[in-house]
Amino acid sequence: MIEERGIITALKTLPDGQTGIAVQTSVKTTCGSCSAKKSCSTSVIAEHFTPNSEALYFTTDQDVQVGQSVALGIREDTLLKASFMVYVLPLLSFIGTFMVAQWALRDTLFDHELIHLLGAVMSTLGVLIWVSRQTKKQHNEFAPNLCHILPVQSATQSQVIKVHAIAPKSQ
Asked: Is the overall model pTM greater than 0.70, yes or no?
């Protein structure tokens, strides 16, 4: 299970007695820890086009508070299946359609690379539409799960941790 941390941003009591929670996660890029960030154009693109956060909604019967941390998870096989559907299937469709078009349209009036390319692009778009519909149908399979709610950390505990982290080592 691949886990990610999030923070509860809103609570709502539901009619069935459970609590609806909104969990905010932040999208991280590797540019934040890179030493070449100031001179790299990729970091500029990542800064402007990467969404800052995403809200996910869950239900729970546990006592929770706004600001409390939670762990969200997604199974590895689900992530691999989604990645295959989004990246590999369209690529295979494009290459396969282009090759079949070259073979099938050989020595005909339509034997031109632009026509082969148009067929491959249309096939790829069709596969992408199919993948989009499949993921919407099976949304619960591809959605992250609420793994566990982390205990509330009091202000005194966080101050003690910070004091220990700053204090110099004794020799």
From this structure: no
